[in-house]
Amino acid sequence: MSEILWEVLNHIEGFIYPNEVEVNWSVLIALYPYITGLVAGAFIVASLERVFKVEAVKPTYRLALLTALAFLLAAPLPLVAHLGHPERALEIMFTPHLTSAMAGFGFVYAWYLLIVLLLELGYDYRKDVVKWAQTATGFRGFLYRILTMGDYDISEETLKKDEKLVGIITVIGLPSAAFLHGYVGFIFGSVKANPWWSSPLMPIIFLFSAMVSGIALVLLIYMASTKLRGKEMDMECVDTLAGYLLYTYILDLGLEFMEIAHLLYTQEEGIDAILILINDKLFVSFIIIQIFFGTLIPITLLVLSKTGLFRAKVRKFFYISASLLTLIGVFAMRWNVVIGGQILSKTFRGYGYYIMPLFGPESLTLALAIMVLPFILLAIFVKLLPPWDEPPLWMKTERRYD
């Protein structure tokens, strides 16, 4: 323990109180808003076709819903892993603390998962699940029969009602998705004692960055899944999603610069410490990774793809590169907010330092494992509930398929 403390103290500069050395929120807390942002962004992609009638992105509708579900199931894991007693996680449901913003996540999460996302998936897939339940055998057939809940009515009138219900649920889900992630920014923005966090723009910035990361994720997954299936990519869909990614990115970049401009203009207490934080302590993660590689380069690639000077093959490369850099840049933003806000001393006269362990309860290994889990879940969901227009491979050999 003394060796770890000595290693930390070697990186501390300036006058700082002893109780300010420790960084309590680790990489897991930076990962938590990142995953919830991907959930909100993916659901917004799904709403483009269902609510805003953007028919070009229809091939990604179901895929976006399944992506949102996979990442939503993994969203609480960083918080649960961060707890000293993870078995107490459900206490926020049984002994609610209504004045706690963090405890409120449990209720927002339950509402979004049980009422919004699962209902929309259930009604949207009902026709297919009924057909699959009548065709599939073995465990697959057993699972589909459970999902039908004994209701095999897929008449035209019933399907029209289902379509209306899905539309209503999606409209309800939009503000729910925004609230699911916007409140994370609210938690940081409401900490008035920390000038790096205390900003009324924080919830809005978190929400727009969530939209950016969610669109980039769905775009990347759609392109990868189409390639793996050996199918022809719908370039109209890809170009449209990339366009929305560009427009959202520009708004997000404008908001972030507005926040920094507000800090510089008001010259409130701690501004000198924040400037050192940006230009020194967070220079690599903020200036280089988040702003340059994670924002400016993706925007440049997306703008170039909009000029019409490049063929589809080149545009695909631009989209893949922009999406990957976007996901890295948005995570860097979460890192800079969570970790950067903690290494700033409350006295504004010194800076701490966060050393992330490779193994252990708050380690890089655990964070990577949690990040990989949603992709595994998504692969299972896609296998059981194919989001494509054509019938599943296992069904093509069944004589009963109509």
Q: Would you kindly provide a written description of the structure presented here, covering whatever features stand out?
A:
The chain is an all-alpha fold and about 400 residues long. It has one domain (about 20-385). It has helices spanning about 1-10, 25-50, 60-75, 75-80, 90-95, 105-135, 140-150, 155-190, 200-230, 235-265, 270-280, 285-305, 310-345, 365-385; strands at about 15, 350. Strands 1-2 form a two-stranded antiparallel ribbon. Helix 2 packs antiparallel against helix 8 (about 155-190) and helix 2 runs parallel beside helix 14. About 40% of the residues are buried. The mean pLDDT is about 85.
The span between the termini is 67 Å
Strand percent estimate: under 5%
Q: Give the ordered list of helices and strands.
A: HEHHHHHHHHHHHHEH
Q: Could you estimate the helical fraction of the residues in percent?
A: 55-70%
Structural class: mainly alpha
Helical element count? 14
How many structural units, i.e. domains? 1
Strand tally is 2
Shape: globular
Average pLDDT rating:
85
Going across the biggest sheet, name each strand in turn. 1-2
Radius of gyration: 23 Å
Sheet with the most strands? 2 strands, antiparallel
Query: Can you tell me the residue ranges where pLDDT is under 50 for at least 5 consecutive residues?
Result: none
How would you summarize what this structure contains?
This protein is mainly alpha-helical and 402 residues long. The protein contains 14 helices and two strands.
Which secondary structure elements does this structure contain, and how are they paired or packed?
Elements: H1 2-9, E1 13-14, H2 27-50, H3 61-74, H4 77-82, H5 91-94, H6 104-135, H7 138-148, H8 156-189, H9 202-229, H10 235-266, H11 271-281, H12 283-306, H13 312-343, E2 350-351, H14 364-384
Antiparallel strand pairs: 1-2
Helix pairs in contact: 2-3, 2-8, 2-9, 2-13, 2-14, 3-6, 3-14, 6-7, 6-8, 8-9, 9-10, 9-13, 10-12, 10-13, 11-12, 12-13
